[in-house]
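Hey, resending since the last one bounced:
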Amino acid sequence: MLIIITIAFFMMRIAPGGPFDLERQLTPQVEKNMLAAYDLDQPLMVQYWRYLTGVLQGDFGPSFKYRDFTVTELLLTGFPPSLKVGGAAILLAVVVGIALGTIAAIRQNSAADHAVMATAMTGIAIPNFVMAPLLTLVFGVFLGWLPVAGWGGGSLRNIILPVIALALPQIAYIARLTRGSMIETLGANYIRTARAKGLREHIVVIRHALKGALLPVVSYLGPATAQLVSGSIVIEQIFGIPGIGRYFIQGALNRDYTLVMGTVIVYALLIMILNLIVDILYGFLDPKVQQRAAAGST
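The structure tokens again:
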């Protein structure tokens, strides 16, 4: 985390432009006072040390553009919508993606397998900024079933389209990962042993094969979940969702140093926490991991 904060801090300062360049023409005295108010008149290492000590105390500093708000207040306002939409999207992606990948693996080289893989490739190839307007055009404009934009207090009608738009690429990736891993697992010796014992096929797949096949999927879900939960810039802009992704892009365009740094720290922290959860889940999904850990501790 220290390395990430350091790199992000100095990269923001190296980028051309400043937080007050887009303001109307300021007199030298006013500009000097504004720089002093945000400690931007101090040497760079002094600014870095003050920011680092503030972060350690949970203070991300004031926003340069949203003058009446601190970065912490903005992130606390934007995180719940991003969490709601991103969490629903990753849950939908996991359920649908694993189901489709499992069906494709069981029926390898069949019409169902080819249909699932063709759909997955389409989902990967078509980016969000193309899929989202198509969904709004079909279900919002032509059919009139759902609102095309707006948060609406987080109502179900308002989040269906952004959740689907966010989940579609993840469904495609998870389906492909599940299919490949499941095909390899179904050829393992312990699966052949389970079948030789006369177990029903659905028991072999669900209780034995699926558990081992989920390891690559679990590894992928760590950064994927962090990406979705921390907010998709494109989706939040298209559907008018007041999440932290919107603050990130606005902060980058306006050179709002503290706001960009705050979103970067939140995103990095999410990745670290979710990767830790993934490592813990590995121990439950793969007994070999527990055995190696036990052997290492002894």
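The first helix runs from residue 2 to 14.

Sorry for the duplicate.
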